[in-house]
Amino acid sequence: MTDASLEHMLDLLEVRLDAFAVCEIAEGWRLACPPMDGILIHFVLAGEGMLRSERGDIPLRPGTMVVVPHGLSKMLDGPGLPVHTADMSASCPLPQGMVKFRAGQSGGGLVLGCAAVTASVGDGHGLFDHLTEPLAEAAPDEAPALLFQAMLRELSRPGIGTRALVGSLMKQILVLLLRSHVRRQGASSPLAMPLMHPQLGRALVAIVGRPHDEHSVESLARLCGMSRSRFSHHFTATYGRSPMAFVQVARLRAGARLLKSTRMPVKAISATVGYASRSHFSRAFRAEYGLDPSAYRGDPAPEQEIEVLAAE
Fold first, then answer.
1. Is the separation of the CB atoms in 176 and 144 below 8 Å?
2. For every residue of the chain, which 3-state class applies, written as one string?
3. At residue 270, does pLDDT exceed 90?
4. Is the per-residue pLDDT at 159 higher than 50?
5. Higher pLDDT residue, 180 or 270?
6. CA 133, CA 68: separation in Å to the nearest integer?
7. Is the pLDDT of residue 308 over 50?
8. Is the pTM of this model over 0.85?
C-alpha cells in the first residue's frame, strides 16, 4: 500500500467510541474476560503482563496496543505468575458510563485503557471485522499514551462536546496504530489486505480526491484499465459497496467536513461536493447520518431548512 493510498483510506476512517473501561490487574492476579460482540482495543498505560487467548499469548508492556476481534475470550494477567482469578463482575461504575474492572488490590500492577469501538473505512463495513486473532502493535512514540490519558480525563469530567471529543481522540489513536502497523508490515498486514488492489487504487484516489467530479462506473473502469463489469465486480467485493455507492459516501463525508468546518450555505456545499440540488444532497445526507445537514452542523433552526426543502 502506497503512502498516497494509506492517506486516502485514513481520510475516510470513521470511528465511534462505544464504551470505555479501565482495567487494573494486580501482581499475581488474572482477569477473565468473556467473548465480546464488538471490537476491543486495549492500551497498556502502566505495568507489564500478558494477554492470553486460544490464539496465543501477547506480552503487554507500556505503550502496547492490542485489537481484540469480536467473539474471542481472553485472560489478562498482571505481573508475575497468576495465583488468583477475578472475572469481569468485579467492577465499579465510573462517570459517563465508564467502568473499572479490578483484579486484586490496585497499585503497582497492570493498568489498561479498554475501548469498545466501531471503525469503518468508507464502505460501511467494520475495519477490524475480518480479524480472527488479536493484533498487537507497539506505540511508535508517546503520542497514543497522551491521547488515551486525555480521553480518560475528558470522560471523568464530561461536559458539552464530550462524545465528539473522545471520538476524535480515539480516531487519532487508531490513525497512529494503522500508520505504524501498515508501514511496518506492508502488504502482509491483515489490515492492508482487504484494502489493497493496485488497479482499484486509481479509482479510489480519484473518488476521494475529487468527489465532486462526474464519476461513473464507465469512467472509473477506464481509469483502472478494466472492463465495466470486471471493475464493478472487483470494486464491490473489495470495498463492500458498489462504485457509485462509494462515490456517494465520499461526497457525503466531504459535505460533513464542510458543514463542521465552514459556514458555507448548505446549497453551496451540495454543489461543491457534486450534488445537482440541495434537496438531493439533504435527502442523501439524512439517510447516511440520520440528521438534516443544518441539524448536523448545529444550526439553531433546522426546521427552517425543512421548509425550504419542501418548497424546492
1. yes
2. CCHHHHHHHHHCEEEEEEEEEEEEECCCEEEEECCCCCEEEEEEEECCEEEEECCEEEEECCCEEEEECCCCCEEEECCCCCCEEEECCCEEECHHHCEEEEECCCCCCEEEEEEEEEEEECCCCECCCCCCCCEEEECCCCHHHHHHHHHHHHHHCCCCCHHHHHHHHHHHHHHHHHHHHHHHHHHHCCCCHHHCCCCHHHHHHHHHHCCCCCCCHHHHHHHHCCCHHHHHHHHHHHHCCCHHHHHHHHHHHHHHHHHHHCCCCHHHHHHHCCCCCHHHHHHHHHHHHCCCHHHHHCCCCHHHHHHHHHHC
3. yes
4. yes
5. 270
6. 7
7. no
8. no
C-alpha cell at 307: 421548509
Lowest-pLDDT choice from 35-44, 109-118, 193-202, 291-300: 193-202
Domains and CATH numbers, the chain: 3-188 (2.60.120.280), 200-311 (1.10.10.60)
Confidence bin at 304 (pLDDT 50/70/90) = very low
Q: Helices 217-224 & 200-209, crossing angle to 10 degrees? A: 130
- CA 31 to each of CA 24, 51, 82, 84, 122: distance values in angstroms, whole numbers, following the listed order: 9, 10, 10, 9, 36
Orientation of helix 243-261 relative to helix 217-224, angle to 10°: 100
Sheet containing strand 99-103, edge to edge, reads 91-93, 99-103, 13-25, 110-121, 39-46, 64-68, 135-138
Q: What span, in angstroms and rounded, lies between the C-alpha atoms of 217 and 75?
A: 48
Percentage of residues in the chain with pLDDT exceeding 90?
29
